[in-house]
Each structure stands twice: as structure tokens, then as C-alpha cells.
Amino acid sequence: MSEDTSIDAGAAVATVSAEVKAVVEALIFASPEPITPKMLYKLLAEEPREDVMAAVEALKAEYENRPGLQMVEVAGGYQIVTRPDLHEWVRRLFHERSTQKLTVQGLETLAVIAYKQPITALEITEIRGVNTTGVLSTLLERHLIKIVGRKNVVGRPFLYATTKEFLIRFGLKDINDLPKIEDMAEALGFEPPAGLVERSPSEDVLPLTEEDFESGRVERTE
């Protein structure tokens, strides 16, 4: 192989790497939800998986030095988002309506579920000291929580847990990425309920039945 041919081959490899990186960046940016490695592999099926992940790692390194944007791992996937210190400016752009914001009661209930999941409505009420039926309905409607089963006790009450939407909304990689309760409460502007402590080991959970889904009270999720 001549020197010119070697140079051409090296340039071709570099071009392909640049193209793969550009495609990966475009997919992550355009996706409305965090895009997972599995989805990237599927969309770039003709590319070796190691090349796809190399592109991801290269992009993560590049975005470390960008002043306005960052690439983060959220809910098992990747997203390109604005940096936290610029959120106030972004909020000015979108003029968030007050109806889109959770109330203090909603934030407290969501925190209890996040740190104690899976948990029943009665247990949430005992921790917060007030009835939470209406708040649970709101959180379910906004897809921040879901029903994951029934507790193996008399009455077999529903058990609630957080969703992928919750991870996305709060920028968490997974549930183990939750900050300390006090830190989350301070960041969101509410006092944590006195009975709220770090998550304890979950108790036996009964699986949902077809009857639960047919009743319309439980949505099917992947």
C-alpha cells in the first residue's frame, strides 16, 4: 500500500468517526426523551457498537466545556440540556404557568413516595399527617408516580412508586441517584415531613392482576 493510499484510508476513518459522532449528537438532541444506548445501537445498526459508544464518550467530553449546554445521563439514557445555573433564563423564555407547577403538598407527597417506595396511600398519610387522595390523583395524571402492585396485608391496598418521567423531570440517572432528603427539600422549597426518613427495604409486593387493569384505575406501562 502506497503512502497516499494510507493517508486516504486514515482520512476516511476520521471522516466516518466524525459522521457517527454528528449523527449521535443529532439523535440525542432531537429525542424528546433520554435516548438509551439500546436505541442508539438500533438506529445506527450498521455501525459497530463500540464506535457508537466512543462517539457518546467523545460528545460527553466536548459538552463538559460548553458554557450553555451539558450532556447528562438521565433515566438510563442521554440528554442534551441547559446547565442548571441558566435555568432561570430558560424559565423566562417559556413563562411557566403556575398551573404547571406542583404545590407544596404535591412536592411533599412526591418526596415521601420517592424515598419510601413502594408505599401505600395510608402510609403516605401517616407520614404527612393529612389525607393525600387528591394529591395522588394529580401525581398520577402527570405521570410522576404509578401503581406498581398491592401490599400483602389486609385489604391489599395499592402501592405507589415513581416513574421514568419523575427521573427525567428531576434529572436523575436512576432512583439511587436521589440526593439526601434535606437537600431535595431545600432545593424544591419545602419542609420535609417529620416522619420521612431514607428509603427502607421494600416489603413483599403482590403483582397487579388483570382485574386491576380492567378497572381503569391502573395504566399499563412497559
Which characteristics define this entry?
single chain; 222 residues; mainly alpha; Arc Repressor Mutant, subunit A; 2 domains; three-stranded antiparallel beta sheet; 10 helices; 48% helix; globular; disordered N terminus
Characterization of this structure:
The radius of gyration is 22 Å and the shape is globular. With 222 residues, the chain is mainly alpha-helical. It has helices at residues 3-30, 37-43, 49-63, 87-94, 104-116, 121-128, 133-141, 164-169, 181-188, 210-214; strands at residues 69-74, 77-82, 145-151, 158-162, 205-206. The chain has two domains: 3-92, Winged helix-like DNA-binding domain superfamily/Winged helix DNA-binding domain (Arc Repressor Mutant, subunit A, Orthogonal Bundle), CATH 1.10.10.10; 101-214, Arc Repressor Mutant, subunit A. It has ten helices and five strands, in the order αααββααααββααβα. Helix 1 crosses helix 3 and helix 5 (104-116) packs antiparallel against helix 9. It has a three-stranded antiparallel beta sheet with strand order 4-3-5. It has a two-stranded antiparallel sheet with strand order 1-2. The N and C termini lie far apart (53 Å). 19% of the residues are buried. The longest helix is centred in the first third of the chain and has 28 residues, at 3-30.
